[in-house]
Amino acid sequence: MSITAELTTAELEQMLANRKKAERAKEEKEKAKYEEDRDKMVEKVLLTASALFRELGEFKTYCHIEMDKQAVKLSEYGKVRSNSKGGFSVTNSDDTMRITRRRDTEPVWDERSGKAVELI
Fold first, then answer.
1. How would residue 4 be classed by pLDDT, with cut points 50, 70 and 90?
2. Which domain holds residue 73?
């Protein structure tokens, strides 16, 4: 004979209520842990993205300054084509690395541009 057969209905209901309460507490604890870990991960990723955004902005500014200097040197040296729109490439002596500065004069259109024209 099992132990549950000896218990009254009220005692069985109390045991079931206690078990459900323990399961809910465990689920809530696991949920809280998950949410805490998730929030920490989101914060770390966004902080890293923010730092990279700043660094890339500084790098872009640095590149513009250096390429402006190089453009002046190239024009003094006479290596800029007469029909140049401001774009040029610089290659190292070993011909293994190249930096290209593009100055696109033709705008690039996408589907939003077409929709804008339709709305006008």
1. low
2. 3-119
Beta-bridged to residue 89, according to DSSP, are 100
Query: Residue 90's beta-bridge partner residues?
Result: 99
Residues 86 and 101 sit within 8 Å (Cβ to Cβ):
yes
Q: Alpha-carbon distance 32 to 53, whole Å?
A: 31
State the total domains in the chain: 1
Backbone angles phi, psi at 98, to 5 degrees: -140, 140
Kindly give, in sequence order, each residue whose CB lies less than 8 Å from that of residue 91, ignoring residues fewer than 6 positions away.
97, 98
Where do we find the tokens 């209901």? 13
Q: How many residues does the chain have?
A: 120
- Residue identified by tokens 């069985």 is 12
CA distance 101 to 88: 5
This prediction's pTM:
0.57
